[in-house]
């Protein structure tokens, strides 16, 4: 934003409306557990913010939430009492001010004064002195200077340094490092700079990726609407400058949708795997909200997709995604770990299991601070049960795609190895040939996509064949 922007002029008595909206959204996320993207989209509509105001508000919200842990480390050096003793709404306001001072092109004097005005409006006059003093301390150093002051030494504790410098919890950085090091010497990801590349990519906002429903729309239609073809997916396109996907007719009519390219690639891989004999009955075992279901239903041809989702409201989302697609496809509300169909009923099964979501941190800025290692541990039994059910549900000779939107080793290969270790009727196959043209897929046989290598969410796929 230009330094001549109205936001860098002397603050008015009333708080800046965009900052008010941003602060209120941040409070919904931190205090009420709201999802940032959903809360922000609603707030922008309600406040009728568009153009530069909407972009400014989006960066205030997403940036503050993304860098929250790092900013807390800086604030801990700038506040005279423990951060835990601060009222949560005051801490959120300080984080919002810190983001403007260290990571946005906002004049420091204007940023501090705007935040003091916002404090007076939202929290009362008595909080303004503390906000003014703390943010002026923050403004005395640049982001790099604060990192050099607070972070562990990079040579003695590279994981700790990267965690603070790139705004990821340490346990997440450690998990990513383990995943990147798989098949290589321990510490290779750190030494080569690959781990840092991943963390940097994780802090870049994800592009708006679109997918056509094969047979209903073409990529050319999306291109005519202002998108550019995706790099890897034959059915994908990207809105490079962002904007509302609904303005493209194919998206508005359900003949195309919004879906990360990584999600497209794992669904296409399952549909492309060789299957001998019948190939008319496909199953999506964990279907909500239905993006992969819609792509699979478009690819099954004259066959039928059965989509299973335990939550009724998410099952309705699946139905909405399938509505425009011809065929007698089914949506069942039920528990995928307790099949209501006979064993071996399906030719292909997608098990896109619930996971920590650590592979989608670009688009869910709050998730990195909301998730904990306990979440990974608690999800493991469900992931194993769903994969076990998926293998039982596929016929001999059929294939299962075990998919997670997480690169955490305990949610990916460890789950596959644990389940296959208990069974003698299924085996892991090399999935890499199912991603034609996509580079850097590792040593296999499973596939891990990465933001820094592929520009996608960190989707994982293991291809399993029932014997």
UniProtKB/TrEMBL annotation:
InterPro entries named among the record's database cross-references: MeTrfase_RsmB-F_NOP2_cat, MeTrfase_RsmB-F_NOP2_dom, NusB-like_sf, NusB_RsmB_TIM44, RCMT, RsmB/NOL1/NOP2-like_CS, SAM-dependent_MTases_sf
Coiled coil: none
Keyword annotations from UniProtKB, A to Z: Methyltransferase, RNA-binding, S-adenosyl-L-methionine, Transferase
GO biological process, one term: regulation of DNA-templated transcription
Gene3D superfamilies for the chain: NusB-like (1.10.940.10), Vaccinia Virus protein VP39 (3.40.50.150)
SUPFAM superfamilies: NusB-like, S-adenosyl-L-methionine-dependent methyltransferases
Every SAM-dependent MTase RsmB/NOP-type domain range: 183-467
Residues the record marks as active site: 405 (nucleophile)
Domain of life per record: Bacteria
Residues reported in the UniProt entry to bind S-adenosyl-L-methionine: 286-292, 309, 335, 352
GO MF, one example: RNA methyltransferase activity
Pfam families: Methyltr_RsmB-F (PF01189), NusB (PF01029)
Protein role: May act as RNA methyltransferase.
Family label: Belongs to the class I-like SAM-binding methyltransferase superfamily. RsmB/NOP family.
The protein's name in its UniProt record: rRNA cytosine-C5-methyltransferase
Source organism: Kribbella jiaozuonensis
